[in-house]
């Protein structure tokens, strides 16, 4: 009797069973137009800047609107510390300096990186759209960045250097979306390197850089938003995702919860202990009132 074997689907065969990407044709036309009309340097530099600025401030916009809606105040984590125009303006000014004087030169460097490693720009080399490629590579970038962020972030809290660098980011004890990249220039470079390690290891097309930029910006603005809104946040479907309440406690407490995205490093090293104790006490108080 011959052994019964079940043939495994190849990735390309697996894609045949998935629905057609509804935006594929429109995206293809836009991408081909871009690559035909702009140089690789322009795409890598100015294209990346446009993507960054549009996504950054689009992701910040809900939080900006929430402060004017009385119903949304119930979801504000530190409700006793509302946003102020002065604080937002102070944050915006440093952001503009950081985005154009620090991050823009780094974006220009991505052209050199893509040329050196022969990372393609063309539509013909575009990787498949589904989970096994783009999504998994972005998740890999997130894991690498989170690991870098945990250890370097905790190092920046060392008393000998905290006041010189990381104290700038902690100017806002109750964060709001725009504060995600409010930081000392040295911190922007140190922690920002975590973003590029994943690209260095996993990039197979320039589109991965933009996909990773988009996910990373939405994530970091979410955890700095100052609002914990149940049921609507798709990031909470990701296992071990920390979220706004988790990182908000770091700004409130100044120590612990050093991870950027996931919670496993804090769990492993016990740096989430104060967070757990704080919310355990809050739950205890709620039960007594009931």
The main pleated sheet reads as:
none
Rounded to the nearest angstrom, the distance between the terminal CA atoms is: 68 Å
Rg measurement, Å: 21 Å
Fraction of residues in β-strands: under 5%
Task: Compile the SSE list and pairings.
Elements: H1 11-15, H2 24-37, H3 40-66, H4 85-116, H5 131-156, H6 159-162, H7 185-202, H8 206-223, H9 244-253, H10 264-269, H11 273-289
Helix pairs in contact: 3-4, 3-8, 4-7, 5-7, 5-8
Protein described:
This protein is mainly α. It has eleven helices and no strands. Helix 3 packs antiparallel against helix 4 (85-116) and helix 5 runs antiparallel to helix 7 (185-202). The radius of gyration is 21 Å and the shape is globular. The termini are far apart. Residues 140-271 form the Fatty acid hydroxylase domain. GO terms for molecular function: iron ion binding; oxidoreductase activity. The chain crosses the membrane at residues 54-73, 94-113, 195-215.
